[in-house]
């Protein structure tokens, strides 16, 4: 067969190992997050569809019937029985009215009241008895309250609230030897202050119960059925007392109403219990008759509003309608309510317990509205206690006390004719990750009658868990059992205190190992049957990794059980229809029935349904014995030889998965949490934001201890040892292997089994590497916290700080080696700044995190020390020696340097040339085989991945040099600061700034660095340097460089698509500077004709103009004949380019008045005109003709030398019509002058070319249009005179026009128009004789007189009318003027 670990696979780096194991940690963390909310386990469809559970056997499964080999699981164990202190027994003889006992779990105390006296003692040992006898009335209610912050002195840790029939008092509670307010009340001595802090009258209200909230509010239940609040503050106000009682059941102003008027609000249903949800700020009240009230305390817990009140009858009816198979009487008599916080369920808010043990679950808001406040009280589920299913058993009855919290319910049942109670315990801790709620049931007797029941709240440092999917209820206890202490419950009776411990899976396994004397017992095997193998192995590790001296034997047994029952990695053949393989060659793997580990698995987070086992009992989730390797896109498939068989899948063993699960659970509080948080502080320089650690030193210490224990276990028990050459990734191993049809023979099975175990060993090597890296990162973080973490992060660069802000612990461990190294550098730098030796801290770092602080790091630290010494050394020779030695050490480092940091240190001591030497040497070190040069010379082909990576690495090295040059350049060109007002009075501040560099000094360093850089023979460095000069707009300096690499660089850059114009710009300037005018002209011509919108038409014309200048220079210095031809070609292109510019300008004018649909076409045309230099035919056909640009068409015809009289007359006709159409109906003189100016400007361009300026046609058309529009009769001939038409010729043209007898004038009804114009023309010439040369005036006047005479004859021959007589008079006046000229 072909090995799936063939030699063709590349070896893995440490980073690959970390990422592979990190993915598995993510996977198991996700499995641990796969638990359901309690409402989902109870399978409640919605808040409006209540349902019932507990009626089936699988709701309270019998382990004996499940076939796992266990009769029952130990759930509770009595760890201590402590009688009442003997001093209290004597006090009972003095009782006259009342006595009661209760618990203060917050301070690990119990209390006893006898009449008006109260006694408090430690229930653990019966010591530290405190009492208060300052009251005169019988005590009715007692509560221990957290005080409001900021009101009392710090030594007052709690308030003791006592209610009598007459008054309510608040006593201060303090503790001695309370270390740093840590809450370890078991070590402190309790003191009750002798004088009450507050005391107010009850106004004849009997207080039946008192409860406090986390923010210090005090609520009281009244016998009159009302809810009261005791409000206290530091001082009296204008309208309120320092302490007062407010009734929330009637009115907020009820304290103003006398007590004798409040009797009308009294009812026969006293309020007897108050329960507060401090996470949602909801208060619940229970009355004696079973009604439940709901109050909203507001979003911040400081408000108050009544929401709902539901009677017991309503509750009973709703419960009966939900569970019709249960008799109605079982729902009567609610004896206990318990608020369910958001850590228990997101949807369920309250549970009520009846006398028969029924649990009634309520919600106060619709499902899936997590941020909605309470708006109702609705029954959503009925949980029936054991005894109502088909399995015969006695259900609880006569329950008089109950306690519910975090999925555990304790019921205290009175026994008939017996002075002892019976305790029921119902818990789902042994069945996590189930799709329905499954609970174990345990019954145990209680010594005497129960007076009080509670849970000891252990004050231990819990680590806040970062949840990636928002606020969720607490996970199953199996997830956090390694970190938290087991829960303890206290039962208080007349005989004393009975302290019980709730056993979790780890304590259950510990108990089994101790009871059986080792792991080789049926009970231990049954534990592995009950729990999935990997989960059982993870639980084993909690014990096996323990270093407690008292647990040494149990730890050794747990380690043995881990290897005995953890199984081996296997292949499973699903496609072939084969049964799942058994888990390894364990001593009992082949046994049948209850003895077979593969029979029944009770729970399976993240299980794969594809691997079936024997059918479990109804309701339990079927699961395989271990988790298959998950398939992802990075895992490729491969065909492995001609081996018969079905589809295979590698299944990791329970040992393998157990290690990953345990590691994931240790890291769960940190894994997805950001490593830092921002803290804003006020400093003399203003507000400053520091980065602080999200983890405290204590949290890190606790986690580091667990990780080290696991690391020692893995290292000590390592059985996997493959050589480095065989080290490949499980990601490179196909998780699914395809074979042909048929069965596998034994030999093939053994081979595959060996390969599967080898894959698992490799994965275990990866987790071993991950554990070591986690251990180092945690240790380093503790060292950083010991050295003012916020000051170290402030020394990081801004990019590094931004990177650190975004890091989670996972990304820090898997890919944060660089940031860890940067933090170590800051730590070493802090010692160097203080002129302290780095030997001690270097030794500690090498011990704590050897892979993060290597030998090369120590070498760099020594170089830093030399650079620091060089900074303060005064002797120039010694300073030069220190700098050279530091540079030598840095060059000798075998691993890549953090050039950014190192170059900053070199720059700080002014060793800028050392930066050039170091970076060029580092680039060569990173690419010893010049792969980057080959990649560069071959055109940077992306297929050459190795060359590309080497190229990128070398460019990063060169970047440090260019950044140094940039700094020096800016410093050399910095302007001196202008004088300014001093900030404070007094002497002037010191002018010396150690970081400031004079411009002359910076210029000197810059030239020195540049000179050394240009001496380099590294082609890639020259390319990087030129790129930098190019990108920083220092082209003038780029043109001064005389290296042989510049021309080829510019040619290469010009051949690239990006920024090609700028490169060609630089190249023609380079040629021009070196007198290569022909090459410069050709590049300029190429630039002008370059297609693209990045060049404007004006810029193209500029390039053509420069090209013509260069071509003329080449011709003038005796260039070849081809230069002259090229010059002529350029000049012709320039003429066409100017026509193109004219077309573009005309289109702009058209666009201003065109319709929107036409504007789109015009914009497209303008883009085309800007993107290329077009030929003259294209300009005419696609632009001038298309958009009716008559003036441009005339210019193109003229430029092309094309003559067509009809075409030319048509063009002039359209030009004139277009210009006159602008006038419309406006006859204003200014507007007409503007039209005349535009036409004059156009006609002047062609007046000297008679073929393209048909003056007779133009004159006739202008007069006709002017006549039609009724314009001024003078403007046409004035325009003609303006463009240079001689007066004699103009008179001749008008005379011919008049004598042509064109019927047009009769048609438009203005037969005298031409005579009027002629009269105005002759009058204008007579008034302005200077228009005619003196030598021609006599002859011209004779011509004019003859013309006037003929016009008079014409007028006299016409029909007499006023117009003709008026014109005759005008002509005679002109005749007189002409005669005077004569």
Features:
five-stranded antiparallel beta sheet; alpha+beta; 1382 residues; 44 helices
Mean pLDDT: 81
Residues in helix, %: 40-55%
Say how many strands there are: 36
Number of H/I helices: 44
Span between N and C termini?
129 Å
Structural class: alpha+beta
Can you tell me the residue ranges where pLDDT is under 50 for at least 5 consecutive residues? 1-9, 251-266, 575-648, 720-742, 990-994
Domain Nucleoporin Nup133/Nup155-like N-terminal: 73-496
Pfam families: Nucleoporin_C, Nucleoporin_N
GO cellular component, one term: nuclear pore inner ring
Domain Nucleoporin Nup133/Nup155-like C-terminal: 653-1356
Verbal overview:
- The strands form 10 sheets. This protein has a 5-stranded mixed β-sheet, with helices on one face. Strands 7, 8, 9, 10 and 11 form a 5-stranded antiparallel β-sheet that branches.
- It is built from 44 helices and 36 strands.
- The model is unreliable at 1-9, 251-266, 575-648, 720-742 and 990-994 (pLDDT under 50).
- Among the domains are: 85-224 and 226-266, no CATH class; 1286-1382, no CATH class.
- The longest helix has 40 residues, at 746-785.
- It is of the alpha+beta class.
- Residues 73-496 form the Nucleoporin Nup133/Nup155-like N-terminal domain.
- Keywords: Nucleus, Transport.
- Residues 653-1356 form the Nucleoporin Nup133/Nup155-like C-terminal domain.
């Amino acid at each position: 067969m072909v090995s799936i670990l063939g030699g063709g696979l590349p070896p893995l780096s440490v980073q690959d190992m970390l990422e592979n194991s990190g993915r598995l940690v993510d996977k198991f963390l996700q499995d641990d997050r796969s638990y359901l909310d309690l409402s989902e386990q109870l399978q409640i469809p919605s808040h409006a569809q209540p349902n019932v559970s507990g009626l089936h056997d699988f709701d309270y499964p019998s382990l004996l019937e499940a076939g796992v080999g266990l009769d029952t699981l130990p759930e509770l164990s009595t760890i201590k029985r402590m009688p009442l202190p003997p001093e209290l027994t004597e006090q009972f003889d003095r009782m006259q009215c009342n006595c009661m006992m209760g618990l203060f779990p917050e301070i690990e105390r119990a209390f006893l009241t006898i009449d008006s006296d109260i006694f408090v003692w430690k229930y653990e040992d019966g010591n530290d008895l405190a009492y208060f006898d300052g009251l005169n009335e019988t005590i009715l209610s007692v509560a221990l309250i957290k005080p409001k912050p900021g009101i009392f002195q710090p030594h007052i840790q709690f308030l003791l609230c006592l209610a009598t029939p007459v008054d309510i008092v608040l006593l201060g509670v303090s503790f001695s030897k309370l270390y740093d307010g840590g809450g370890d009340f078991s070590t402190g001595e309790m003191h009750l202050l002798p004088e009450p802090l507050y005391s107010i009258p009850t106004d004849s209200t009997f207080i039946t119960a008192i409860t406090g909230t986390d923010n210090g509010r005090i609520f009281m239940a009244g016998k009159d059925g009302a809810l009261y609040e005791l409000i206290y503050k530091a001082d009296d106000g204008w309208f309120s007392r320092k302490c007062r009682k407010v009734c929330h059941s009637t009115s907020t102003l009820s304290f103003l109403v006398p007590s004798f008027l409040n009797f009308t609000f009294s009812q026969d249903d006293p309020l007897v219990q108050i329960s507060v949800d401090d996470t949602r700020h909801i208060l619940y009240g229970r009355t004696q008759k079973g009604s439940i009230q709901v109050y909203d305390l507001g979003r911040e817990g400081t408000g108050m509003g009544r929401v709902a009140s539901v009677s017991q009858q309503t509750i009973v009816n709703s419960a009966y309608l939900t569970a019709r198979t249960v008799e109605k009487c079982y729902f009567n008599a609610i004896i206990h309510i318990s608020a369910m916080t958001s850590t228990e369920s997101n949807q369920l808010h309250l549970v009520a317990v009846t006398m028969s043990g029924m649990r009634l679950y309520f919600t106060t808001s619709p499902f899936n509205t997590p941020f909605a406040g309470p708006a109702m009280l609705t029954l959503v589920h009925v949980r029936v206690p054991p005894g109502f299913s088909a399995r015969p058993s006695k259900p609880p009855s006569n329950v008089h006390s109950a306690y519910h919290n975090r999925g555990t319910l304790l019921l205290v049942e009175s026994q008939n004719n017996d002075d002892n109670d019976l305790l029921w315990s119902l818990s789902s801790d042994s069945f996590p990750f189930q799709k329905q709620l499954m609970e174990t049931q345990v019954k145990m007797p209680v010594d005497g009658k129960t007076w009080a029941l509670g849970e000891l709240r252990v004050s231990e440092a819990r680590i806040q868990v970062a949840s990636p999917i928002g606020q969720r209820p607490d996970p199953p206890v199996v997830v956090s059992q390694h970190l938290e202490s087991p829960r303890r419950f206290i039962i208080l009776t007349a005989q004393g205190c009975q302290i019980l411990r709730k056993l979790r899976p780890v304590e259950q396994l510990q108990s089994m190992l101790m009871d059986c004397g080792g792991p080789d017992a049926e009970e231990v095997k049954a534990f592995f049957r009950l729990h999935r193998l990997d989960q059982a192995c993870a639980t084993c590790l909690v014990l096996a990794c323990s270093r407690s001296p008292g647990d040494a034997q149990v730890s050794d047994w747990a380690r043995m059980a881990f290897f005995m029952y953890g199984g081996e990695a296997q292949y499973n053949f699903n496609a072939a229809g084969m049964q799942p393989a058994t888990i390894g060659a364990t001593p009992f793997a082949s046994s049948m029935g209850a003895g077979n580990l593969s029979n029944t698995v009770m729970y399976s987070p993240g299980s794969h349904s594809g691997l079936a086992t024997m059918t479990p009992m109804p309701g339990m989730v079927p699961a395989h014995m271990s988790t298959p390797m998950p398939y992802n896109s990075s895992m490729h498939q491969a065909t492995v030889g001609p081996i018969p068989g079905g589809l295979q899948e590698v299944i990791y063993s329970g040992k393998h998965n157990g290690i990953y699960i345990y590691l994931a659970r240790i890291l769960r509080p940190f894994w997805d949490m950001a490593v830092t948080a921002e803290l804003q502080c006020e400093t003399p320089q203003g507000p400053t934001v520091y980065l602080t650690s999200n983890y405290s030193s204590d949290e890190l210490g606790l986690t580091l201890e667990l990780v080290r224990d696991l690391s020692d276990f893995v290292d000590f028990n390592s059985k996997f040892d493959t050589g480095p050459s065989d080290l490949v990734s499980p990601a490179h191993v196909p998780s699914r292997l395809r074979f042909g049809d048929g069965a596998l023979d034994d030999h093939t099975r053994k081979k595959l089994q060996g390969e599967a175990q080898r894959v698992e060993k490799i994965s275990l090597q990866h987790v071993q590497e991950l554990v070591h890296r986690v251990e180092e990162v945690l240790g380093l973080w503790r060292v950083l916290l010991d050295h003012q973490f916020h000051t170290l992060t402030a020394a990081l660069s801004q990019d590094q700080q931004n990177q650190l802000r975004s890091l989670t612990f996972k990304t820090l461990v898997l890919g944060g080696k660089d940031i860890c190294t940067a933090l170590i550098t800051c730590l070493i730098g802090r010692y160097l700044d203080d002129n302290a030796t780095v030997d001690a801290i270097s030794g500690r770092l090498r011990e704590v995190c050897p892979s993060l602080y290597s030998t090369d790091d120590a070498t760099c630290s020594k170089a830093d020390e030399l650079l620091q010494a060089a900074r303060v050394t005064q002797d120039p020779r010694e300073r030069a020696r220190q700098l050279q030695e530091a540079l030598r050490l840095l060059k000798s480092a075998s691993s890549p340097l953090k050039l950014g940091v190192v170059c900053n240190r070199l720059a700080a001591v002014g060793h800028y040339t050392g930066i050039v030497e170091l970076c060029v040497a580092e680039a060569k070190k990173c690419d010893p085989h010049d792969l980057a040069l080959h990649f560069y010379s071959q055109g940077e082909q992306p297929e050459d991945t190795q060359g590309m990576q080497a190229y990128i690495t070398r460019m990063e090295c060169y970047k440090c040099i260019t950044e140094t040059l940039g700094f020096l350049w800016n410093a050399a060109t910095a302007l001196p600061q202008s004088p300014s007002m001093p900030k404070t009075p007094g002497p002037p501040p010191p002018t010396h700034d150690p970081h400031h560099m004079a411009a002359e000094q910076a210029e000197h360093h810059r030239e020195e660095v540049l000179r050394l850089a240009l001496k380099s023979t590294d082609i890639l460095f020259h390319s990087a340097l030129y790129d930098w000069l190019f990108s920083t707009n220092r082209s003038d300096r780029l043109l001064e460089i005389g290296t042989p690499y510049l021309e080829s660089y510019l040619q290469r850059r010009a051949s690239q698509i990006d920024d090609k114009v700028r490169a060609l710009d630089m190249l023609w300037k380079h040629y021009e500077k070196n007198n290569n005018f022909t090459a410069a002209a050709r590049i300029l011509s190429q630039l002008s004709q370059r297609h693209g919108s990045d060049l404007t038409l004006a810029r193209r014309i500029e390039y053509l103009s420069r090209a013509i200048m260069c071509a003329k220079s080449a011709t003038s210095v005796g260039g070849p004949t081809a230069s002259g031809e090229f010059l002529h070609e350029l000049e012709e292109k320039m003429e066409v380019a100017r026509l193109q510019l004219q077309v573009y300008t005309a289109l702009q004018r058209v666009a201003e008045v065109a319709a929107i649909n036409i504007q789109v076409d015009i914009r497209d045309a303008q883009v085309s005109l800007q993107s290329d230099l077009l030929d003259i035919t294209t300009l005419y056909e696609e632009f001038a003709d298309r958009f009716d640009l008559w003036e441009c068409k005339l210019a193109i015809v003229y430029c092309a030398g094309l003559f067509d009289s009809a075409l030319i007359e048509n063009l002039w006709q359209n030009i004139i019509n277009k210009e006159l159409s602008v006038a419309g109906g406006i006859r204003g003189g200014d507007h007409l002058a503007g039209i005349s100016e535009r036409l004059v400007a156009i006609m002047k361009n062609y007046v000297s070319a008679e073929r393209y300026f048909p003056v007779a046609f133009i004159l006739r058309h202008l007069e006709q249009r002017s006549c039609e529009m009724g314009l001024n009769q003078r403007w046409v001939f004035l325009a003609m005179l303006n463009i240079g038409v001689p007066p004699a010729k103009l008179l001749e043209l008008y005379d011919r026009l008049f004598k042509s007898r064109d019927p047009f004038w009769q048609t438009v009804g203005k037969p005298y128009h031409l005579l009027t114009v002629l009269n105005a023309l002759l009058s204008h010439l007579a008034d302005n004789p200077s228009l005619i040369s003196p030598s021609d005036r006599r002859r011209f006047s004779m011509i004019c007189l003859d013309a006037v005479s003929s016009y008079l004859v014409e007028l006299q021959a016409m029909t007499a009318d006023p117009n003709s007589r008026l014109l005759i008079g005008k002509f005679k006046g002109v005749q007189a003027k002409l005669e005077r000229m004569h």
